[in-house]
Amino acid sequence: MSEIASLLPHKGTALMIERVLRWDETEVLVATNLHRSPVNPLRRDGRLAAVHLAEFGAQAMAIHGGLKDRVAGRAMQPALLVAVRDLSMTRDYIDDLPGGLEIAASMLIANAGSWQYSFAVTHERQIIATGRIAAMARGWG
After folding, report:
1. Which of the four pLDDT bands, split at 50, 70 and 90, describes residue 141?
2. Residue pair 106/50 in contact by the 8 Å Cβ criterion
3. 3-state class of 119 per DSSP?
4. Which is nearest to 68 in space by CA: 26, 10, 111?
5. 140, pLDDT greater than 70
6. Residue 62 is part of which domain span?
7. Hey, CA dihedral for 23, 54, 72, 13, is it positive or negative?
8. Which residue from 18, 16, 28, 14 is spatially nearest to 94, judged by alpha carbons?
9. Residue 75's domain is classified under what CATH number?
10. End-to-end CA distance of the chain
């Protein structure tokens, strides 16, 4: 988890991803069980809504960017989430899912100041959410 923390600006319970399973130049696969955490800060009234899987996807995207920057010897670029599109979910809540989640994020577009990724979240090999996320570097433009 400390490697993940070094790749994201998030701290403490705001970290949604626990480990990187694999990654390459265009994709990352990460995993987590933190959707079940009773102290997850995204919970409301004790439940974690599936819409928050977009944040899990955004963190996977940021981890991928951080890993690429690290390998290239560049400082990590802080970015702001600017859009979530085509979000599709198969359920309303995710806190009651018994197993871990895997989040795959694939780079669609990348340039010096903005990125767009697609993502898919699976639980027990079943896709439970998909979407696209766009981010812009802070201070860019």
Report:
1. very low
2. no
3. strand
4. 26
5. no
6. 2-137
7. negative
8. 16
9. 3.10.129.10
10. 33
